[in-house]
Amino acid sequence: MNSFVSSKEGSAFLSQLSNHSIFKRTTSGLATFNEDSSDNNINKKFYNKIVSRNNHELFIATENTIRCCDINNGNSYKILDIPIIDFEIERLLLNQSGTLLAIFNTFNLIVCSLPSPGFINSNTDSKIIEANFFKIGSMYYKDTNVKILKFLWNPLSKYDSNLIILSSDNFIRSFDLTFSFETSQYELNLLNTGNQSSFGLNFEKNNFIVDPISISFGSNDFNNPSGCLTLYIFNQDGDIYSLYPFMPTFIAVPKKFVEILFNETALLLENTKNNDTKNLLIRQFKFVSSLYKQLDTAQLEINNNLQELVIIKPPLEFEKINLIIQGFYKLSPFPDILYNFEGTDLINVSCGENLDLLVVTWSNGGILLLLQNSKSIMRWENDESEISSYSNFDDDEEDETKYDPTLISLEYIELAQQKSSSFSNISLVPLKNSNYKFYININNLKLIQLEFSKWGKLLNEAILSNNTDLFLKITSAPLNSDLMLISGGNNDQNLDKFEGLTILIEDDKEFIIEFRSSKVNIIEKELNEKAEKNEKDKIKLKSVPSIDNSDSNKYSTDIKYESLLSGPFEELKQLLSLINHENLSKGTKSGADLKYQLSATDEKSLQVLNQISKNLVLKNIINYHKFGLSLLNRLSLQHEELTLQINKLNDLNKSGHDAQSRAKLSEAQEEKLNKLVSKQQELDKRISKLYDQLNESLQNYSKTRGKDIAISNAEKKWFEELNQISNHVSGHLNAKVASLTSQASYIKSFILSSGWAGDYLNKTENLKQNFNREYDWNTLIKKFKENGKLIDFVGETLDNELVDIEVMMRDMHL
Question: To which H or E segment does residue 650 belong?
Answer without folding.
Answer: helix 619-704
